[in-house]
Amino acid sequence: MTSPAAARRARQVEERRERIVAAARELAEEHGWEAVTTRRLADAIEYSQPVLYGHFPQGRTEIVTAVALVGFEELAAELSPSALGAAGTDAERVRALVTAYLDFAARNPATYDAMFLLSVVIPFASDDTPAVVRAGFDAIAGTLSGLESPPDDVATAAEVLWGSVHGLAALYRAGRLSAGNDDGRVEALVRLVAG
Amino acid sequence: MTSPAAARRARQVEERRERIVAAARELAEEHGWEAVTTRRLADAIEYSQPVLYGHFPQGRTEIVTAVALVGFEELAAELSPSALGAAGTDAERVRALVTAYLDFAARNPATYDAMFLLSVVIPFASDDTPAVVRAGFDAIAGTLSGLESPPDDVATAAEVLWGSVHGLAALYRAGRLSAGNDDGRVEALVRLVAG
DNA sequence: ATATGTTCTCTAGCACTGCTAGATCTAGCG
DNA sequence: CGCTAGATCTAGCAGTGCTAGAGAACATAT
User: Fold this and answer.
1) ipTM for the assembly
2) Does A124 sit within 8 Å of B181, measured CB to CB?
3) Which residues in chain A have Cβ-Cβ distances shorter than 8 Å to B124?
4) For A1-57, CATH number?
5) Among the partner residues A163, A175, A185, nearest to B167 by beta-carbon distance
6) Regarding the domain delimited by B61-193, which CATH topology (the fold level of the hierarchy) does it fall under?
7) Tens-digit pLDDT profile for residues A39-69
8) CATH 1.10.357.10 domain span(s) along chain B
9) How far A97 CA sits from the closest chain B CA (Å)?
10) Angle, nearest 10°, between helix axes A131-145 and A60-79?
């Protein structure tokens, strides 16, 4: 049933889908999400607007969600034990985790917004939570459970820690933290968790 | 120079300004910020759209900012020592602060969004930070400095605690925390700060 | 190689958005 | 009462997300 022509075609469709997502992300990181319009996206991939809806029937919000999912994939990778290096004292491990998280948010501000501000569509903490999203949470929980003196309730502690770093990232992004004290805040948070 | 007619007029203008802000807030809490359009606001106050721009030359974003400022005023009031009751153990005081904060966010989701997500216009942690905004931060810092065993660096600790509660509020709002464990998270956070 | 029918793609347009220029009306002053 | 200054409205612009229907291109079967 899958003729060679159909296979090639499917490959082209998939490639075009990724070009849409990449264009959306680039446009967002460059000029903010309000600059990501269907017309500009169509221009970027050199097709007309309706083509976008062939790939993303739910339209713009679905494209934002796709960018968010890519972001979760990258974040989970950067928080994985292999990326962080699982050695050192408890404080060092927590510091590595927190720093990696905040770095990601600072390096990909628009993508981070898509992940946490814009796409409320993605189900969390439920059975059909995408695997990549769960992986990010698992990385945090994994770091906590691997500590020499782990918290009693790892799941709850992981949610609180996630909230804390997300809060710092969000306030930082909004310019609502005093400048030049980034390390001080990280250190204070690390000491709270692994102090 | 200020004739009685002009004084009455000024009062009417101020009253209409407040009606705009109230309508925006109500509309946002009821149907979300995307439902807050200049046409609907004009309808609500029974004037035409251009009237809005007489009050808020910068347009819609300035109206959102006005709602945010009202929100900061209310939040500061609810976090003040007189509202919290400054007695009890360290854990009790921190718990009261955290709970009051999260309650406010849960009760006024759209207003909270205006304060932290939408209006990046408000300058923070700078000399021209509005007094009401600073008051919220001061309430957090005040609670921390009033503890029996206060943190070394109150300002930094207050920023971290603000980030933590904001993060929990944001993740909760986005439906990204496991359901039914609100108290557990609060307790875990309280123990981190005053444990 | 050609006709066929499906599948894809584009043009054009709708209803909506924030915002503004210019006409119109109203209200206060002399 | 007449006039002027100010407030207010009507109408419209450029842009948004999204979609129906016309048109082109393509793989398939003869």
Assistant:
1) 0.91
2) no
3) 174-177
4) 1.10.10
5) A163
6) Tetracycline Repressor; domain 2 (1.10.357)
7) 999 999 999 999 999 999 999 999 999 999 9
8) 61-193
9) 16
10) 30
